[in-house]
Structures are given as structure tokens and as C-alpha cells.
Amino acid sequence: MPEISEQDREAIIAGDDIEKLVEAAQKIGSRLAYARLTTSQIRGIFGTVRRIEMDWVMPSLQQQRPDAVRRAQREFALLQPRLAYQAKRERGGAVQALSDELTPAIKLVMGAKNSSPDNYYQRFRNFVDFFEAILAYHRAFGGQ
Known about the structure:
The chain is mostly helical. Helix content is about 75%, strand content about 0%. The chain has seven helices and no strands.
């Protein structure tokens, strides 16, 4: 069950609300640390997000690297099934808790796929910031 409301998630991903991002990341990071989510459980997912981030360049540069951007967008869409698989594979429910938070956020980013490249890219950037803040708070609350 997600820790934050759909309205707050939309404000973070689609609306760029930094205050809500910090508040939500703190709640989620605390919950994930309490659920004993380990760094190794998230390393693969976060590593994939970082690789996507390197290829998914800002819209003004996308014409120079269209294949890389398409590949990055495809990889981003595939995060949903990867999260679902990893959540079922791991014991204890900690990865499921992470999946419960990130999957709706991924869907919000993907919902902008047919909008302007600027909007799609900005939602992706907001997702990366959100994920990074969750991980920072996870560590701050004692996550290993």
C-alpha cells in the first residue's frame, strides 16, 4: 500500500512540487528502512535509472541522439515489470513496498509520453529526484 496519496504523487512528478517531494521521500525512506530494505535490493533498479538518465538527454539535445533517447524511454517503461519481478522474488516485503511507491510514479511519467518532449523529460527528471531522495532518506533512517 503506497505511503503517499495519488494527489501528492502527481504534484511531485507532474507538478514539480519540491516540498511534497521532500516530505513524501522522508515518509517512504523511513518506512523502507523500517522494512529492512537493503542497498543491494535496490542497487540494480537505481543503477538502471542512472543509465537511463545518461541517455535521456534534455529535449534540446534529443535530435542529436534520437536512438539513445528512444532506448532510454523503453528501458524506463520496462522498470515496471522489473520491479514487479524483483518484488516477488525477494522475501520480507521490502522490495514490494518500494515497488508500491515507484510503480505509480513510473506510470505518471509514462502518461506524458504523448505530450511534449519537454513535459515528458521533466516528469522523468522529477521521478529521478524523487527516487534519489527516497534512497537518501532510507540511508538517513538507518537503511543498510
